[in-house]
Amino acid sequence: MKPFKPEEVIVEQGSEQSPIWHNLRHALADVPFRVVESGSLLSVRAASTNDGFGDAKRRLYLTKHKGDFFKKCPGSEGQVCCNYFVINFASNCPMDCSYCYLQEYLSGNAELKVFSNVGDLIDEADRTLSKHRNVFFRIGTGEITDSLALEPYTGMVGELIPYFAEQPNVLLELKTKSDCVDSLLRFDPKGRIVVAWSMNPQKVIDRDEHFTASLKERLGAARRCQEAGYRLGFHFDPMIEYPGWETDYQAMIEEIFLTIDWRRLAWVSMGVLRDTPGLKRAMRERFPQTQLLTGEQVLCPDGKLRYFQPLRVTMYRKMVQWMRGVAPTVKIYLCMETREVWEQVFGYAPFCEKELGNQMAPSL
Length: 364
Ligand code: SF4
Description:
With 364 residues, the chain is α/β, with parallel strands linked by helices. It has 13 helices and 17 strands. It has helices at 19-27, 52-56, 102-105, 118-131, 151-154, 157-164, 202-208, 215-227, 245-259, 277-286, 309-326, 339-346, 353-359, and strands at residues 8-12, 33-36, 59-63, 70-72, 84-87, 90-91, 96-97, 112-115, 137-140, 170-176, 193-198, 209-210, 231-239, 265-272, 298-299, 305-306, 332-334. The chain has an eight-stranded mixed β-sheet with strand order 4-5-9-10-11-13-14-17. The mean pLDDT is 91.
């Protein structure tokens, strides 16, 4: 994977001297840095082309996060929720998948930002985790960014892993489409850190997951993490239906489950392509060649467009069958799907979100 390199780093006053600042200065010694007054960060924008969202990914902003770091995953109305929490240590992503929902979600706030006040993040997490020691938390860092794509420069995991690895009631998930795992290998995750990859066949990666690591690179990185003691997760999400998808997805599953020790997988999730009318507009403008806009979808009660339910059920059932063929006891769940779909795929639906969250709790 060719690592992303920002054209410039814009630093808001007050973020100099943070650990992330020092890491950036060290790793991006040949990139210009500019310190700007507090409050004027976003007046410094990249030269504008026809692709404002793409332009915003070319510069890196270092700033303090002003609101809460720790929140519950919003899920999607009417869908079975997996009781997941999120911590946002950055906003936007240097990679550029054509289906990325951030194109709509961050359309008015697209700057690629990393937050410097990691100490506040840890303090906030600690208040919640220590107050509810009898509750098991699954926490992810990849809601509005990729968890590891900026890692070679920010060294963020060096701030997070030593704290989260010591917490008895948590699994911290670092979700990525990169292969930037070198810095992780220095730490002992103590069974508390899950490194997870979004996986798609190479054909989908080539067409629609721009600037991400190849399937082989992701799998190689996963194997290295497993050998270093990390738990792994895989997310087959978004699954894309196209002529011949069965052959490609089945081959990918066999390759994954033969490369890693599936018995030590934390979880696997599945979800089909989802978008909204607004996201489709953004995709049409930014990626007019993508074939993702050609398939039929239906509008669901949560406002998202998905494939027809019978097609989704067929795709999930086939995936489960292929996975169970090579990994009979692996934990599989559906992301943003209805109880009805759960029942058709697995023969049951979790009674409540806590039940599903607890199913993902580790047996240490
Ligand atoms: S890797 Fe994830 S966050 Fe980054 S562009 Fe792709 S979908 Fe968006």
